[in-house]
Each structure stands twice: as structure tokens, then as C-alpha cells.
Amino acid sequence: MSILNVLVVDDEPGIRTGVARVLRNFTVGFPFMDDDFRFETREAGSGEEAIAILEKEPVDILLLDNKLPGIYGIEVLEYIRQQEYDIEVMMITSYASLDLAVKATNNGAFNFVPKPFTPQELKSAMESITKHLYLKRMTRKLNEQGKQVRFQFLSVLSHELKSPINAIEGYLKIMQEKQAGGDIDDYQGMISRSLERIKGMRGLIMDLLDLTRIESGKKKRNIIALDITEIARMAMHSMEPMAIQRSVRIHFSGDQPVYMHSDPSEMEIILNNLLSNAVKYNREGGEVFLSVEKKPQGITIDVRDTGIGMDERETGELFKEFVRIRNSKTKEITGSGLGLSIVKKLTELNHGTISVSSKPDRGSHFSVVFPGE
Amino acid sequence: MKTNAMKTILLVDDDPDQLEQLKFHVARFGYRPVTACSQKEGEAILEKMAPDLAIIDLMMENQDSGFILSYKIKQRFPHVPVIIITAVTAESGLKFSLETEDDRRWIKADKYIEKGIRPDQLHREINKLLKV
């Protein structure tokens, strides 16, 4: 049960106690609310008294008479708007002229209840104002959370983009001032590291484009019957040059075509990412085992490597955006930190699940399962 | 009195190129660089030796790795000056500095420098802290 604080402002004591009595045992609940609301009522006999209370105490709903002994209700309303208090106001008034109604609505009054009112009229007015208040606050909360997530994403992204720029700039300045001497050969290491960082940035941009397309839902999915075995074999071929460079051998098992309905580019992204990770995070002379199989639980893609592996804490973080496992074993490996979060999103888009098991220095095993059609 | 060449500077940064460049410059200034690429590796080095000064990146394994490592250095070697380098200000709008008493109490670093510092500025800061 949540509580909403109600302030009744009226110069007639009878109205104030009447409202308090009606609201005492009244609760409001809607199917979409987690919690019912009940009301705690405070009273003020004048606009000045009301403002004094508003300054000190939290008020959610204000029931406000216009014709008051000192300042008028409409002025209290103006004060609330100026202070930007998060309060819903309902005017209770015996003769509401059009002029007053327009003025009050402009100043944010939610509703009018004509005086005198029956307990039932008050209750239904309170129901609608409570629903309005709840939805307004909920919407704001959700927007804030959305903004927060986006802000975090952007600040990490700018960090990820800035790091390589800083690195390249640092090397260029060393070269510009010939700080390592006059022989160009002494700068070869810096030049190849700069090129490597540029490659990493390009990869990040490509991954970002993939991610944007998935998240916007704008990319038209081209769902057709696919042979996953064939896509896996193609991914293996495209990874071959990098594997040879790192003396890593890729073994493929899957001689049967395995069909499922999906978008070919999505499956390519999943397989390319998993395979390139298995090669990148492998050791010199290591191995990668790729298999595609139709199992009882569904179509299963397994990618196993003999690489550097991870501990439990690291695997737990792995699928989040911009998470890269950083240690001495991974320091020379470039990556955007987006690959696995993209793989996970695409797997889930295809109603699949992805899991990982890993042991430090032994290797990792990624398994993607798409339930049968 | 140690000469510069005998003075060791511990450098900790998870970006291999930033670390390489720090190492390059520190060696050029005439100090002996010792490098680590994570908070964890930095701690392991502290088990074996006491540096004369430490330069640490703020965001490594965790967002506050640099603060934690700095704190640990100060616990073990209260007189070793620590410089924290970071890019955090510009991108998050957060501002860390050692201006207020409160900051000084929990950020156990002697100097707080933003990334993109010019090598000659860094040289001056190092010399100032080592009282060269």
C-alpha cells in the first residue's frame, strides 16, 4: 500500500473534514499498478496556510477552492507552477466561470469538482487524478532510466573512440619531434601499432552500425530457409587468413545440411564473431573446433577454442556492451567490446540462447542453441 | 641520494599503446620505467618492489581501479608520490580534482592529470614530485 498526501484547501471547515472523512478508508487500485494507494489528508483554511504547508511537506494532490479569504486559489496554483512542484491540483469550486476554468487549466489544474459534491463524485475524481499522477510519474521514471542507459553507452563509446585516437596521436607526436632519433626504422613498431589501432576503430564503427540496425529494428529482416552448415563453412573460410597468421587451426564438423529459417546476414554475424574471437583469443599454435548439429534441444552451434580462457567473474560480464576482458594476455588484441553483445542480441532475436563455459589458460566454449522449428 | 637513472617509476595503464608511450617518455626523461597493464599486475609489482613514483590510469578493470591502486600504494609506501591520469572528465562531465578537503581525503593521489598531457608537462610534474 502506497500513500499519497492530499492537502484540502477550503475556508469552510465542513468541506475539509468531509473530504478527510471520505478519503480515510478509500483506496485506489488499477490492474496495472503494483500497489494500491491510500490517502493521508491535511487541511488548510487559506491560500497562505496552504503555501506554508507546501513549502515544508510533500504533497501529491491538492484539492483547492478558489474563493478563499486571503489570496485566491488561482494564485496558489500559480505559485505551484512557478516552484515546479510535482503536484496534481483539482479545483473545488461552487461557481466556476469559464474565465476561471481557462486560467486554472493553463496553470496546470487537472480537474474541477463542483461544490457541493457527493462522496461518490469525490471518489471518482480521486480515482482519475491518482491514475493520472501514477502514469505521469511512471513515464518520467522510465524516460530517465532510458536516458541513463543511453548516457552510459555514449560515455563508454566516446572513451572507446578516444583511446585509439590518443594512442595514435601520441605516436605521431613522438615521430614529429623525432624523439626516437633520425632513423625511420626505429619507428616501425609505432607505425604498425598505429595502423592496428585504426583497424580496431574501423571494427568498432562496423559493430556500431550492426548494433544500430538491430536496435532500431529498421533493418528489414530477410527470413529464408538457410543451411547453417554452409554459413558456418563460409565463416570458417573467411577467418582462415587470420588463423594462418596466428598459426591456429580450425576444425569443422558438420557434414549434414542443417536448415532453419532466419536472416542470412544475422547468422553470418553470429558465426563470424564467435569464430574470430576463438582465433583472436587463442594461443600460438592453438586449435578451434566448430560444429553445427541438429540435437534434441535444437540446432546447436558449438565453438570451442584452446585459448586463454576466462574465470567465472569474467564470463559473467561477457555479453554486456563494451565489456572486454583486459589482462596481460589480451592487451595486444584489439576488439570493440560489442561483438558478443551483438551476438547475444541476434541469437535472442532468433529465439535462441547462448551460453559460455571457460577455464583460464585452457580455453572457452560458446554454445548457441536455436530451438527446433 | 639516488640519481635519476636509479629512480624507478611504476606505470600502470590498460591501453598497451598509452603504456608504451609513457614508458618511452619516462625512459627519455632518464628514469627507469616499470610497467603493468592492470590494477592486479600493478599490485603484484608492489609486492616485489617500492617505486619512487607511480603514474596510474584511472579506468582499467574497473572504473575506479586507479583510485584503489593509488590507495594501496599510499598504504604501503606513504611517501611515494602518485599521479593519476585519466580521460574521465571530458567524456562524462564528471569532474575529479584534488581541490576540496573531501576529495583529498578519499582520492589518495598527489596529482591528477587529464589524458592528452604534453610530455614536457608530465616531465615537469614528475620532477616536481621527486623534488629534482
Q: How is the largest sheet of chain A built, in terms of strand order?
A: 2-3-1-4-5-6
Can you summarize the main beta sheet of chain B?
5 strands, parallel
**Count of helix runs of chain B:** 6
Mean pLDDT of chain B: 82
- pLDDT below 50 for ≥5 consecutive residues: which ranges of chain B? 90-95
Please indicate the percent range of residues of chain B in DSSP E strands (runs of 2 or more): 15-25%
How are the elements arranged and paired?
The complex is a heterodimer of chains A (373) and B (132).
Chain A: E1 2-9, H1 13-24, E2 27-28, E3 37-44, H2 47-56, E4 61-65, H3 73-83, E5 88-93, H4 98-106, E6 109-114, H5 119-176, H6 188-216, E7 224-227, H7 228-245, E8 249-253, E9 259-262, H8 264-280, E10 287-295, E11 298-305, H9 312-317, H10 339-349, E12 353-359, E13 363-370
Parallel strand pairs in A: 1-3, 1-4, 4-5, 5-6, 8-10
Antiparallel strand pairs in A: 2-3, 7-9, 10-11, 11-13, 12-13
Chain B: E1 8-12, H1 16-28, E2 32-36, H2 39-48, E3 53-57, H3 65-76, E4 82-86, H4 88-92, H5 101-106, E5 111-114, H6 119-129
Parallel strand pairs in B: 1-2, 1-3, 3-4, 4-5
Helix pairs in contact in B: 2-3
